[in-house]
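We were asked to recover a plausible sequence for a given structure. The inputs and outputs are reproduced exactly as logged, with field labels preserved.

PROBLEM: sequence recovery
POSITIONS: 122
GIVEN STRUCTURE:
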């Protein structure tokens, strides 16, 4: 998937509210319309669920690690599916304001890890 990181991992200043700091457990990746999101590792789909303001999200287990993909339109995976690295999991949703953006997290157990460090290795 091509794109750029529009929200970084960790403590960040809020983009609109001056003086407000947010803690991001993942990153946002802006991309082009109709872009496909792909699994970054082999794994087992644990859950796919709908979030009204975000579209569909998917949680995939990779051994002791998990990845979370948020902002999917019509996912092509479901709970119980096995996925391979590089497999399409769904199209990234384009929001009403015209922004196409994927939310992405990597966790070891419950602990969030910086996805940028993992993406740089790929």
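RECOVERED SEQUENCE:
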């Amino acid at each position: 998937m091509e794109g750029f990181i529009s929200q970084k991992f960790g403590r960040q200043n809020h983009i609109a509210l001056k003086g407000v700091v947010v803690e991001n457990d993942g990153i946002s990746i802006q991309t082009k319309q109709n872009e496909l999101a792909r699994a970054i590792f082999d794994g087992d789909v644990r859950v796919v669920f709908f979030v009204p303001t975000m579209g569909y999200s998917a949680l995939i287990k990779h051994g002791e690690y998990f990845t979370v993909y948020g902002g999917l339109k019509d996912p092509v995976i479901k709970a119980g599916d096995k996925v391979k690295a590089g497999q399409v999991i769904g199209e990234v949703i384009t929001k009403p304001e015209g922004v196409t953006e994927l939310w992405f997290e990597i966790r070891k157990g419950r602990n969030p890890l910086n996805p940028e460090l993992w993406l740089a290795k790929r």
